[in-house]
Design goal:
Layout: H1 13-19, H2 22-28, E1 48-52, E2 58-61, E3 65-66, E4 74-75, E5 82-87, E6 94-99, E7 105-110, E8 120-123, E9 128-132
The structure holds zinc ion.
The site of zinc ion has 8 residues, from loops.
């Protein structure tokens, strides 16, 4: 089957396992969380677009990135490819953010952002790729 999109989106968990590293699979497909402070994009200051590690969809502009001090890459706004849904796991009511294109879990969004948007998208670095430009 020919895919014209940027990257083909796997259609089964077997394909996802083949495409992603075990850590990426745990986060994107099983809603895991990476250890704070370990993400390789945490301190990335280059200009460009943060994309979904699962499918390549553009998720966050580098303009939206800020240092939240939490140990996870943080953004104050998202592109239209980022969806939101309630997450009541772990006895908390939070808002999960996910990639609308492939359904991959990214992290959570909170209403305590320090910038004028008031939003803090707290995202796993492993769920992201980076495209310069
Ligand atoms: Zn995706």
């Amino acid at each position: 089957m020919e895919h014209k999109s940027v990257e083909a989106v796997p259609c089964s968990e077997v394909e996802w396992k083949a495409k992603l590293t075990p850590d990426q699979y745990r986060i994107l497909r099983e809603k895991g969380t990476e250890v704070a402070g370990t993400g390789k994009l945490l301190h990335n200051k280059e200009t460009g677009m943060y994309v979904c590690a699962g499918c390549g969809a553009g998720l966050f502009s580098s303009d939206a990135k800020f240092d939240s001090g939490t140990g996870w890459p943080s953004f104050d706004k998202a592109t239209e490819n980022v969806g939101r849904r309630p997450d009541t796991r772990q006895g908390m009511v939070r808002t999960e953010v996910y990639c609308k294109k492939c359904g991959g879990h990214l992290g959570h969004v909170f209403d305590d952002g320090p910038t004028k948007t008031g939003k803090r998208y707290c995202v796993n670095s492993l769920a992201l790729g980076f495209r310069k430009g």
